[in-house]
């Protein structure tokens, strides 16, 4: 298969030259572009998620030989969650190489967290199938960089931490309410308010609803704990 300039440039950013570049092309193909004879990246995403998980589990065990399972699990979740995969994808400008259907392209698909995270996992699987586990491991460790050593001692997401704080005090789980939405349809901006039954609230605004919820939860948790 002849390499396009786009594929060559992405291989350089990834630090891996494919023996089978068709694997990378498939990893970049969203379901909106699939057609008979042109597979999308969903199966690769499934595999890449598992490869990433094994690499991160090994890395965390090696990084802290005294950590308990209870400490390792939230760190692991922070490293493999879709937001982190999307952040890594943005660092290598994976969005620029995605193969998207017209509707996804028009709706800002190259910037969407879910699409970027899925594609990053698919690329990991493509490297694994192209060159084996050690090559995939090298890719992940290189692209994730010092995230393994920087991950918080307790990396539970803010929504989980706020819910546990509330439940420990006999309260129901916090509520999350969308109080405003702005921006064009292809790039909406959400304002979310996190609310406790005791009356405390906090708001946050972000380009993804889930991120806004997390930031609102973090702000409310800091407010009620005094951190």
Structure description:
This protein is mostly helical and 227 residues long. Helix 5 crosses helix 7. The termini are far apart. The mean pLDDT is 90.
On the 0-100 scale, what is the average pLDDT? 90
Q: What would you report as the Rg, rounded to the nearest angstrom?
A: 20 Å
Largest sheet: 3 strands, antiparallel
Shape: flat
Structural class: mainly alpha
Query: Which H/E pattern describes the elements?
Result: HHHHHHHHHHEEEH
Question: Would you count the extended β strands for me?
Answer: 3
Helix amount, in percent?
Answer: 55-70%
Question: End-to-end distance, in Å?
Answer: 56 Å
Keyphrases for this structure?
flat; mainly alpha; 3 strands; 227 residues; single chain; 11 helices
Question: What's the SSE blueprint?
Answer:
Elements: H1 5-14, H2 21-27, H3 42-63, H4 69-80, H5 82-91, H6 102-106, H7 113-131, H8 133-144, H9 147-150, H10 158-168, E1 175-182, E2 189-195, E3 201-206, H11 209-225
Antiparallel strand pairs: 1-2, 2-3
What's a quick, concise take on this entry?
The protein is mainly alpha-helical and 227 residues long.
């Amino acid at each position: 298969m002849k390499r396009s300039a786009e594929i060559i440039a992405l291989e350089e950013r990834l630090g891996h030259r494919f023996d089978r570049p068709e694997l990378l092309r498939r990893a970049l193909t969203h379901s909106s572009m699939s057609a008979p004879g042109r597979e999308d990246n969903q199966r690769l995403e499934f595999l890449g998620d598992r490869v990433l998980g094994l690499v991160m589990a090994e890395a965390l065990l090696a990084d802290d030989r005294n950590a308990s399972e209870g400490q390792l699990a939230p760190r692991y979740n922070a490293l493999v969650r879709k937001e982190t995969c999307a952040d890594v994808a943005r660092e290598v400008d994976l969005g620029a190489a995605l193969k998207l259907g017209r509707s996804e392209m028009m709706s800002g698909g190259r910037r969407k967290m879910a699409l970027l995270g899925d594609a990053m996992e698919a690329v990991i699987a493509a490297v694994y199938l192209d060159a084996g586990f050690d090559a995939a491991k090298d890719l992940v460790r290189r692209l994730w960089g010092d995230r393994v050593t920087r991950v918080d001692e307790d990396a539970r997401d803010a929504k989980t931490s706020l819910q546990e704080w509330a439940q420990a005090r006999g309260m129901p789980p916090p509520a999350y309410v969308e109080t405003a939405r702005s921006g064009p349809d292809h790039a909406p901006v959400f304002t979310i308010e996190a609310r406790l039954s005791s009356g405390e609230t906090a708001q946050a605004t972000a380009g993804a609803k889930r991120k806004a919820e997390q930031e609102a939860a973090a702000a409310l948790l800091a407010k009620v704990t005094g951190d």
